Amino acid sequence: MKIPPVKGTRDFYPPDMVRRNWIIDGWKKVSVRNGFEEYDGPIFEYLKMFQIKSGDEIVEQLFSFEDRGGRDLALRPEITPTLARMVNQQINSLPKPIKWFSVPRLFRAERPQKGRLREFFQWNIDIIGADDNVLADAEVIFTTIDYLQEVGLSSKDVKVKMSSRKLLAAVLRNIGIPEDKHDALYTLLDKKAKLPPKTFTEMLDKQVHDSKQANKIKAFMELESVPHVEKMFSRDNEVVMANDELAEVRHRLDQMGVADYCIFDPSIVRGLAYYTGVVFEVHDVVGDLRAICGGGRFDNLLHDFGGPLIPATGMGMGDCVLQILFEQKGLIDKNLPEKQLDYFVATVDKPLNIGMADGVVEKTEEDIVVQLTAKLRLAGYFATFSYKAGGLSKQLKEASDRNAGKCIIIGEEFKNNQLVVKDMATGKQELVDYDKFLSGLKS
Ligand code: HAM
User: Which residue has a Cα nearest atom 2 of ligand 1?
Assistant: First the structure.
């Protein structure tokens, strides 16, 4: 019976693992150089962890189950609630600001589509308890851009689209939308780019019955710059303050030298329920892919999980859209680390019969190959031999296919305790004393 892989999951064959590791190694390297420390949590948590504040979309996509003790659990669809729980547990002893990163494997029962699967990896960076909110928001965005730049995505390839939940809330209040309708509206407004315009308008009209109000919301979401917002809502203090905050983040990003990546886009709302301030997403410029990453400020989340009111900001970047983009731009294969084998240990075609005493062979050529390869490995080298029965030329071909730096050939000379060492790049061969070769390895 053949059992297929589960829909929306991936098998990682060795070449796929090389790609996956390259992405994850890049995330980790950039996190560390930006001052983030790594953490992780469990793959499953209590179901209610993700029901409290993640929002309806995530709740609908949960893989949940009841364990034998009757506990309702769920596979993690994101790590931010776990982060909030873990920080709350040690809130008094952790030095602030907390700058942590993680690369969790996540699970969402989405309809699998281009760039969205049911199991994926997501890079998370978060800053909690910083005194300067603007600087922390800018640092999260800078670190995101640092990675994009590191892998060769320029501001011509991708854009950081920024807006603010505070700004949106102020605009909705200004338009006269009651506070208790905001959360449901955020969920709909977040979907604007993904829905056909007619469907979006129909759905908006269902939530906002006054057509003047609905039109104002649509007009706001199409504004192209912060000054345009100021013009439309010039006398609203809250709007002005939220605008100023966005401008300050932008100013910091300018100082950091990455402002060319950033644009203002009031249609960025974010689907998750816990965002409270600046929000952003990275999109490819062509615009035919889902968001590469998303994040923002979530100042109430730790409090919602029973902790103190403490400022927090961060972002999550999945590996799926990123991989599609890398393939489109030819960035992966160009950047993958070269596989380098230090030594390939080969033998000449003839059996050697070393140490024959009274017709008893003490060491076969295979014994020497195995012993020498083991010695090389124990000395820290990447060394191997051939499993295939074949002559020297076949073994040399295998060594070259495996990108070996050097090939050691065990031949007639071994009877005089000597090895042939062939430099695979130059083709130069030299005879080396076996004992000297071994002591050279140790030093
Ligand atoms: P999110 O917008 O749900 O945010 O996800 C962030 C990113 O994760 C997306 O932009 C995408 O790259 C990736 N992603 C999400 N769902 C899938 C999926 N089904 N398949 C593949 N990739 C996916 C969060 O998760 C927040 N917790 C991020 C955050 C951290 N905010 C503050 N700190």
Answer: 294
411 shares a domain with 301 = no
Q: Does 63 reside within a domain?
A: no
Instruction: Provide the number of structural domains found in the chain.
Output: 2
Residue 32 is assigned to a structural domain of this protein: yes
- From residue 50, alpha-carbon distances to 124, 178, 398 in Å are 17, 26, 52
Is 183 found in the same domain as 130?
yes
What domain range includes position 431? 341-442
Q: Which residue, judged by its Cα, is nearest atom 18 of ligand 1? A: 116
Task: Report the CATH number that the domain containing residue 280 is assigned in CATH.
Answer: 3.30.930.10
CB of 292 closer than 6 A to ligand 1?
yes
Q: Indicate whether residue 136 lines ligand 1 (CB < 6 A).
A: no
Protein residue with its CA nearest to atom 1 in ligand 1: 294
The answer on 107 and 251 residing in a single domain is yes
Domain boundary among 320, 335, 350: 335
- What is d(CA 314, CA 307) in angstroms, rounded to the nearest whole number? 18
Phi, psi of 106 (to 5 degrees): -120, 160
Q: Tens-of-pLDDT digits for all 443 residues of the chain?
A: 999 999 999 999 999 999 999 999 999 999 999 999 999 999 999 999 998 877 777 888 999 999 999 999 999 999 999 999 999 999 999 999 999 999 999 999 999 999 999 999 999 999 999 999 999 999 999 999 999 999 999 999 999 999 999 999 999 999 999 999 998 899 899 988 888 999 999 999 999 999 999 999 999 999 888 888 888 887 889 999 999 999 999 999 999 999 999 999 999 999 888 999 999 999 999 988 999 999 999 999 999 999 999 999 999 999 999 999 999 999 988 888 887 899 999 998 655 556 655 655 667 888 899 999 999 999 999 999 998 878 899 999 999 999 999 999 999 898 899 999 999 999 999 999 999 999 998 66
Task: Say yes or no: CB of residue 320 within 6 Å of ligand 1.
Answer: yes
* Tokens describing residue 339: 């596989």
Q: What is the pTM of this model?
A: 0.92
- Which of 4, 295, 42, 246 is closest to 147 using CA atoms? 295
Q: 103: Cβ below 6 Å to ligand 1?
A: no
Closest CA to 422 of 382, 441, 395, 440: 395
Q: Is the CB of 268 under 6 A from ligand 1?
A: no
> Do 367 and 411 fall into the same domain?
yes
201 and 306 fall within a common domain: yes
Task: Name, in order, each residue with C-beta under 8 angstroms of 94's C-beta and a sequence gap of 6 or more.
Answer: 87, 129
